[in-house]
Amino acid sequence: MVDVAKNGVQKESASVEEKGLNRGLSNRHIQFIALGGAIGSGLFMGAGKTISVSGTSIIFTYMLIGIVLFFVMRAMGELLLSNLEYKTFADFCSDYLGPWAGFFIGWSYWLTWVVAATADSVVIGGYFQYWFPDLPAWGPALIILGLLLTLNFLTVRMFGELEFWFSLVKVIAVISLIIVGLVLISISFVSPTGVTASFNHLVDRNAFLPFGVSGFFAGFQIAIFSFAGIEMIGATAAEAKDPHKTLPKAINAVPIRVMIFYVLSLICIISVSSWYAVSADKSPFVQLFLLTGLPVAAGLINLVVTTSAISAANSGIFCTSRTLYGLADADQAPSAFKAVTRRRVPGSSLLFSCLCISGGTAMLIFIPSVMTVFTIVSTIASVLLIFIWSLVLIAYLVYRKQRPDLHRISTFKMPFGIPLSYVSLLFFVFVMALLALEPDTLSALYFMPLWFGWLSIAYFVKYRKASDAKPKFHDADYGLDAGTN
Asked: What does the alpha-carbon distance between residue 417 and residue 184 come to, in Å, rounded to a whole number?
């Protein structure tokens, strides 16, 4: 059984290489690609707004979202490893929910990362204004996008190495903030504004719900967006070495690490400056170091958070190009997007995705407020992510009903899979209801019917026949994880 399974894995790897993609990403690469997407603008820029509206209750918000998304990741991991022909979560959604699901989730995920990379590009322009206040934010944002496009035309392994070092910088930045924050708290540092650093700020009067329940609810939008990227492990499955070892390690480690980084960072920021002193439209990381009276350190941190935004945009560009390539490979997008370069990079998909991101970033020309544009695009990304994560859970529930034999032999089972899937789905319904309560997030909900209406027309008019005719994934490849772990 073991030998047969291993031979199956080798054949699957070979077939992927023949199609143009190769398994050139190690566990180290995959974990940091996911970290690169998830630890970015949502934390370094968006945390300021979430703290200013939610107070210390935002810590609970991040913990709650992190736990729910860990369940989503475990469901995704069990499904991906139940059949090594699954290259992304769009594949198993198509298999269990029907070809329409693969089409909808694939295109929605592509748009998610177009929008998310746009959000990261927007804040890159905002960070540059720290050094050059009179410089239009769209200028450096578009220049950086051009540079990232060039880098992504390199080999997959080269991309993995670059993203590893990009992400390492931001992880060091988060750890540095936590250490500096703890030191300032331990010496009871007094800021120029007269605030003494102390953990007592976490329990200050009215700190937990400064604006009542409505303020607590308002923090969910950017908090959800902040976790965008952890599901990238699924998008990189087709290019992972030894997925049965790599993916479980990455899935188990990344969500926990992200949640720890976010929670500890928020605790330190609030403890040093108190929630009411945090500016909604500036990076709280840079603000914290400005409070120390060391502008050089603040400038250095601004450089680091700029690098982090570049890293997050880089991860988004990677994901959009691979998603579009997968759609074309499944005959759910124009065949031109199946083209790969001599270095086996999906060049046409990469170029088209970057053009769309550039178009979104150009909104800064007409709306010069970085935070306004960031809020608009991050809300759209949040709604799309909730849709995608929900489809993953629904596919998992169908999988448990249709293939109990695969669940029984799986060595990477989702704990309490069925009840926790329903709980997570109810949580997402709750968050969607919250988004409808806020004017700035409600506008994104108005966009969603247009998007799904266009997808419906495109699917039923052009792609339905091709998708329905495409054979399902081979049943013989199911259960490979039982023999390779």
From this structure: 43
What's the pLDDT tens digit per position in 387-436? 999 999 999 999 999 999 988 888 888 989 899 999 999 999 999 888 88
Give the integer Cα–Cα distance in Å for 242 and 143: 37
Helices (H), 82-211: 89-97, 99-131, 138-152, 156-186
Residue found by looking up tokens 């579009």 in the block: 324
Domain at 2-472, CATH from 1.20.1740.10, 3.40.309.10, 2.10.270.10, 3.10.20.310: 1.20.1740.10
- Residues present in the chain in total: 485
d(CA 127, CA 278): 17
Contacts of residue 61, Cβ cutoff 8 Å, sequence gap at least 6: 50, 54, 216, 219, 220, 223
> Domain coordinates of the chain in residue numbers?
2-472
Which residues touch 388 (CB under 8 Å, ≥6 apart)? Answer: 89, 105, 108, 109, 112, 231
Question: What does the longest C-alpha to C-alpha distance in the chain come to?
Answer: 69
Which residues are CB-contacts of 354 (< 8 A; sequence separation ≥ 6)? 145, 148, 149, 152, 317
Spatial separation of the C-alpha atoms in residues 16 and 238, rounded to whole Å: 7
